[in-house]
Design goal:
- The protein contains 3 helices and 53 strands.
- By secondary structure, it is an all-beta fold.
- It folds into 6 domains: 117 residues, Immunoglobulins (Immunoglobulin-like, Sandwich); 93 residues, Immunoglobulin-like, CATH 2.60.40; 122 residues, OB fold (Dihydrolipoamide Acetyltransferase, E2P) (Beta Barrel); 127 residues, OB fold (Dihydrolipoamide Acetyltransferase, E2P); 181 residues, Jelly Rolls (Sandwich); 71 residues, no CATH class.
- Strands 21, 22, 23, 26, 27, 28, 29, 30 and 31 form a 9-stranded mixed β-sheet that branches. Strands 39, 41, 43, 44, 46, 51 and 53 form a 7-stranded antiparallel β-sheet that branches.
- The radius of gyration is 29 Å and the shape is globular.
- The protein starts with a helix and ends with a strand.
- The N terminus is likely disordered.
Amino acid sequence: MRTFIHYMMRNTVILLVLPLLAVACAKDGHEILYKGTALGSMEKNVVVGAEAGQVTMAVISNEEYTISTRSTWAQAPATSQGRDGFTVVYEANEGAVRTAEFYLSIGSTHKDTLYLTQRGLYPPILSFVQPSVVLDGAAAGSKRMGVQTNLTLDQIAMNVVFPENTQPWLNDVVFSGNSLSFRFDANPSAEQLRSANIRFLYKDDEGAEQERVLYISQKTSSNTEGTSISWEDLRSRATTAPTVITDNLVLEGVVVSNKASGNMGNPTQTSVIGIDYTVADRTVYMQSLDGSKGIRILCVGAEDNIFRQFDRVHLMLKGMSLYKENVAGAEYYCLDGMKSFNVFSDESGARPVKTRKIAELTDDDIFTYVTLEEVELPIRKGPLTPVNEKFTNASGVNKVTKFPLIVRDVEGSSLYLYTNMSCLYRRDGHRLPYGSGSLSGVVVSELYSRFAWADDPAGDEDFCGKIGKYQLRHTALSDFSMASSMDDSFSKVLAEWRYITSANQVQYFATDGDKTAWFGHSSTNNITLYDDFSYLGPVGTKSGVFGYHPENINGLGVILADGTDWMAPGYTGTNSSHLNKVNNTSSGMGCGISPSNIGASWYTNVNFTSGTRDPQGLVLHFSAEGVHKAMSLQLCMMSVKVSSYETSGPRDFTLAYSLDGGAQWTSFASFRLPDYSPASPVTQLWQTIGFMPMSFQLPAACLGQADVQLRIFPDATSVLGDDLHYISTLSPTTTVPRTAFNYIGIRYNK
């Protein structure tokens, strides 16, 4: 834990500062300004290259401060003051990464430390010839093992760790740089296996601390290794009640999770304003060697999750709790209480290959690493988490754990792709792929109440959040193996609305595809521009964990047919005068918000006829002439309110088509929308902070038709809610509540 805290202190934006100017109120009502003492920095650790040079270390101060360092390769002045900071001159580094510390002080009361990390000419390497070893237990002995490293001894810290309440049984542990030797005692127990870790800490080329662990296990006094258990036998022991394993069982498998992604596990929403993010760091997904079965393992602490992705491991299961769960009709298996000492052996392995179509997924695929074939992200807009970052850890707020995007395959099946708010690359500015290809990740079955609060009006929380039987969790950006261009896709856009240019039009023509396609409202001139959250990133406010990023530098991921990056810096066109307000609105700098006047989303003013509950909504008009393969409709929608404590928008919607100019309508799908409610009070567990993405197959009857109309109407019986109640007694009016859209698209297979 000390190592983790030290790393966070080095790399998190921290300002240790007393107010430069404080305000007090005098008796006559005038403000009095008085001067205080301040010393601190917004950037605690600066990283530079291996070549010689100089860099300015930023400091905020209003008095002279002293600077000292023990470094021999980086020099700084003895004093400085004000906001100028100070310049460090550093020599070339022909070795590995190194760090210089600079100690700042004003007298004895104000102190701070800044760090300068310099990369080396070669990346640091530390690995073991044998990453794990199993020792005989019948007699004492000694062992020597090879170590491969380009680091010097003073750049590596070594620590021998035993489980709690265990007497040390490794002695004379000596690390020489290229070898490790130790003596070990005999195991006095005929039943108990023993384990220990030898942990090595060093810094990578960014100055962050890395850990390599040598796993040491010892057989019993009779030289037995425990009982190897098959995956089938382990499953047969599981019940819905967690049961502690008391036998010396050993399970072999492949770790398919990647702790570094921040996207493993389902962080626990402990309250409407609290999240346990440690779940992501403590979750391990492991599959059988043949990839046919998987299991979720929850470590006791993040430090116990020491696996690299695709490691082949043997786990000692004794002391861990085994159970099974059933969510949304899917059954899966879990182990809780793993510690690093449960690792009997560990060696690196290859990326497993297991391909599926979405419709082919079964319960046996849960917690295994699967590659979905011929898939696409059909909504060409936004990042992995297009949400209002005012409510996430990017703003120091913990109201939402994750967000789902829709994935569609060539057969028309779809599922949701989960991204945790703790995922490090979730909104880093990269554009999602437009084309099709493969998508890999771990199959899960998890609820998401913010898209589906209840299956019935009772609102039973145990049944909230069913958004499909299976979902996928990506483990790294490399899991996305889809083409960047729409030209390289199994589908083609027939018509698409990624934005609208202005409000209160009668016809809103498509921005992509067939630009003669259009939609309107069944009650004329009832569409208004609205805020959107599709900015690519990076995002973050001064109080968030991703740093402070208040400017629009990457647009919304909307690349037009002529290559124009819509609403990115340098864009000129309709509403471009507002592009600098993207991610920089006065009420949410760094929160990923796009202001309403750019047209990235819109809402309907009217959902019902005045005085009745006769539905009103959008009607799409397009031609499917020449289209003879599967067509699909993509929508991003949510219900919104005008202000606090008013009713939500309608939740229940029906999709219908007409082939005779609107004289006759045939329903083909229905769905329920979540509420969006950023207003006071706190965001409830049924409310979303982003538009819900959906995909629907269009009826075959629409293929080849020259005049197709699609209707997106609420149901007259739609259940409404408010800020405090999922089911409200309030009644809708003509203009309130509202239904918001930020994407409409129609695709067909080529």
